């Protein structure tokens, strides 16, 4: 059985019972305008849910049946990422969330409830790893660039809680590995194959293509954390200052 490109797996009696119970819960969520996480949905139906994965599979079947994404039925993942910086989120319920806190603020589960964003920042810095996000805050990035940068985790950016007109990759570049003499880790065969595939894609041209070609030549990768081996404050005082000079009056 299929609905568009979605497919529903063969259903046993227990799974069908679970889906009916979950549909009743989803109806209540939609009727009352409330939300819950996938994990909460699992705990609400423990008597039928054998494992979290069993519940999530049943939820996938429900989404296929309704031809809807989970967020459209008010069910969300447990984490939406973190934001830190001079930004205030205005929610439809009247609540305001000040993101200018020491350790960052969680993105609301229901990002559609954000009706307005107020900020003074000149750019948004997307950080892939939560550990690096926290380290940048510990090192005082907001003091170094006051009222200038909104820091977000990659998960928060993917949720599209904000509109970013343009996006630029600022590193860590393969050329940085060579320039700074960073200690790298050899690339595995699958990673080298992926690089070959990326080089052939139409959007990897100019600077990005040159970096990919160098990465293939070096056959070595390095993590952004390796910059801390140069100096504990190197990312804040040197690396970011150099990378952001094109965008900020530093």
Question: What keyword list fits this structure?
Answer:
250 residues; alpha+beta; Dna Topoisomerase Vi A Subunit, Chain: A, domain 2; 3-stranded antiparallel β-sheet; 13 strands; globular; Spo11/TopoVI_A_N; Spo11/TopoVI_A; WH-like_DNA-bd_sf
Can you describe what's shown?
The protein is an alpha+beta fold and 250 residues long. Among the domains are: 13-76, Orthogonal Bundle (Arc Repressor Mutant, subunit A); 79-165, 3-Layer(aba) Sandwich (Dna Topoisomerase Vi A Subunit, Chain: A, domain 2), CATH 3.40.1360.10. The chain has helices spanning 13-32, 38-44, 52-66, 130-138, 141-144, 154-158, 174-180, 189-199, 207-218, 234-244, and strands spanning 2-3, 6-7, 36-37, 75-76, 82-84, 87-91, 96-98, 105-106, 114-119, 123-127, 149-153, 185-186, 220-221. The protein has a four-stranded mixed β-sheet. Strands 7-6-9 form a three-stranded antiparallel β-sheet, with no helix packed on it. α1 (13-32) crosses α3 (52-66) and α8 packs antiparallel against α9. The N and C termini lie far apart (59 Å). Residues 154-244 form the Topoisomerase 6 subunit A/Spo11 TOPRIM domain. Its EC number is 5.6.2.2. It is an enzyme of class 5 (isomerase).
């Amino acid at each position: 059985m299929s609905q568009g490109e979605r497919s529903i797996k063969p259903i046993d009696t227990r799974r069908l019972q679970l889906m009916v119970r979950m549909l009743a819960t989803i109806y209540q969520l939609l009727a009352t305008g409330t939300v819950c996480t996938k994990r909460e949905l699992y705990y609400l139906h423990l008597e039928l849910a054998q494992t979290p994965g069993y519940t999530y599979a049943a939820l996938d079947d429900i989404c296929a049946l309704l031809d809807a994404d989970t967020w459209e039925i008010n069910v969300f993942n447990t984490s939406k990422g973190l934001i830190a910086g001079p930004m205030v989120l205005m929610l439809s319920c009247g609540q305001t969330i000040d993101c200018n806190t020491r350790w960052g603020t969680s993105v609301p589960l229901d990002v559609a409830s954000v009706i307005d964003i107020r900020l003074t920042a000149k750019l948004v810095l997307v950080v892939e790893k939560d550990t690096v996000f926290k380290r940048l805050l510990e090192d005082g990035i907001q003091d170094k660039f006051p009222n200038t940068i909104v820091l977000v985790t990659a998960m928060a950016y993917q949720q599209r809680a904000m509109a970013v007109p343009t996006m630029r990759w600022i590193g860590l570049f393969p050329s940085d590995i060579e320039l700074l003499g960073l200690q790298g880790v050899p690339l595995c065969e699958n990673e080298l194959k992926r690089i070959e595939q990326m080089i052939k894609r139409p959007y990897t041209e100019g600077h990005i293509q040159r970096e990919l070609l160098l990465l293939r030549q070096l056959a070595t990768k390095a993590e952004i954390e390796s910059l801390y081996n140069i100096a504990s404050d190197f990312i804040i005082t040197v690396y970011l200052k150099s990378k952001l000079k094109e965008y900020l009056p530093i």
